[in-house]
Every structure is written in structure tokens, then in C-alpha cells.
Specification:
Length: 230
């Protein structure tokens, strides 16, 4: 039996050590960029100043959906900041991705975004989340909650296709308010659920963009206390 060349083995070992050090360095840089940025501005929406069962005009101008009544302000007594939430109320055979970009949303490459989110049970599809780096209706990221599969996903939209990677197991329940948070920087995107960081990914696509809310197909979801720091 031939023995491995010790020079070749040593070279491979050096490459392996270098790769590990590089990965650690990238991870530290990503962690620092997602957690230590000082934000100078903020915007916040609690939807309480809008009329019940309407889609305010400034919101209608920013939606990316052909069904203007799909998104609407609703009174909900258990809202985190009562009385109102912004809701998606699905119609029969609602299909596709439903996008609501926030009025006067900043375009930023460094930001922290959070929202209170509740997905209602009893629908064919139950997926909702936060949009970041929105360029247009075909190019954006969404940090998505999926209670049917007990997961949180970071998904990239590419010309009507949604590619979700990474995906992580998470305790996501319907009929319960969750706090969903995304942090973006030039190094990547991080995702938190109820105060715990679950997703952290380097990503160079769509380096800057706007922010908003998202649901899929016939999902019924309520949103409250949307906040953007940038």
C-alpha cells in the first residue's frame, strides 16, 4: 500500500486550516456588521390612525398586487398596539406573492427592521414575512415564517421564483403574535424570531432597497408595530 506524500499532506492541512480561519473571519465580520451599526433615522407604523376596513391611499400607491382590497386596515382588539392592524384578507383563489412596500420607505443598505406578525390558521398556504432590499416586484429578499413546516427562511426573489436558503427549524405557531426582525448590512442579512437570532447569511445580491411586508397565496396575516431603523 502506497503512503501519502508528506509534503502533499502538509499542503492540504495548511489549506484546510486557512479555510477554517477564513470562515471564522467572515462569520465574525458578518456578526459585527449585523449587530454593531449605529442607526441615525427611524420610521414606525402602528396603523392606528387609519380608518377601519380601508386601504389608505398612501399604502395603495406602494402595493404590488392587482387586488387593492387584499391589504386593508382592520380593527383587532388583541393587536399589540390596539386598535388596528394591517391585514391581508385573502379572496377566493388568491394566488401568488402579495407585497406591501411601506409608504415613504427609505432605500438603505444598512438597516434593522422589525414587525409584530400573526398568521391565522385554516388556509391552504400559511406564509408571511418581512421584505428587505426591495428593488422591484421580481427582485427582493423576504424573511419568511412558515408555521405549516415549522421553519423560518431567508428567500431571494428572482423573476417570479423564490429561492429559500438558508432555512432553519423554528417554533412558529398560527394564531400567535411573533416578533420578526431582519438586520441587513453590506456583509449580509440576519433574521431573528422572538428575540433569538436564527438565520445569518452572507449575500451580495440587491445590496440596497426598500422595505415592506409579504404574504403568499391565500395566507391571512395581521401586522402591527412595523419599525425601520436606518
Amino acid at each position: 500500500m502506497s503512503k501519502e506524500n508528506p509534503v502533499r499532506f502538509t499542503r492540504r492541512l495548511r489549506y484546510a486550516i486557512f479555510a477554517v480561519i477564513t470562515i471564522i473571519g467572515i462569520t465574525i465580520a458578518l456578526y459585527n456588521s449585523l449587530n454593531s451599526f449605529n442607526y441615525a433615522h427611524e420610521r414606525e407604523w402602528n396603523f392606528d390612525s387609519y380608518q377601519n376596513n380601508t386601504l389608505p391611499q398612501d399604502f395603495a400607491a406602494f402595493q404590488s398586487d392587482s387586488s387593492p382590497r387584499l391589504w386593508q386596515v382592520k380593527t383587532y382588539s388583541s393587536a399589540p398596539s390596539a386598535p388596528n392592524v394591517l391585514a391581508t384578507v385573502p379572496k377566493e383563489n388568491s394566488m401568488g406573492y402579495h407585497i406591501q412596500i411601506m409608504p415613504d420607505s427609505p432605500t438603505a443598505s444598512e438597516a434593522k427592521i422589525s414587525v409584530k406578525l400573526m398568521i391565522l390558521p385554516g388556509h391552504r398556504v400559511e406564509q408571511a414575512g418581512l421584505i428587505v432590499r426591495f428593488v422591484d416586484p421580481s427582485h427582493y429578499f423576504v424573511l419568511m415564517l412558515d408555521p405549516q413546516n415549522s421553519r423560518i427562511s431567508l428567500c431571494k426573489s428572482e423573476i417570479q421564483y423564490l429561492v429559500c436558503n438558508p432555512e432553519k427549524a423554528a417554533q412558529v405557531s398560527t394564531g400567535v403574535w411573533h416578533t420578526l426582525q431582519a438586520t441587513i448590512s453590506s456583509e449580509g442579512i440576519g433574521g431573528w424570531l422572538d428575540g433569538t437570532e436564527i438565520i445569518k447569511a452572507n449575500n451580495e445580491y440587491y445590496q440596497t432597497g426598500q422595505f415592506g411586508l409579504w404574504t403568499n397565496d391565500d395566507t391571512e396575516a395581521y401586522f402591527d408595530n412595523m419599525k425601520i431603523e436606518y
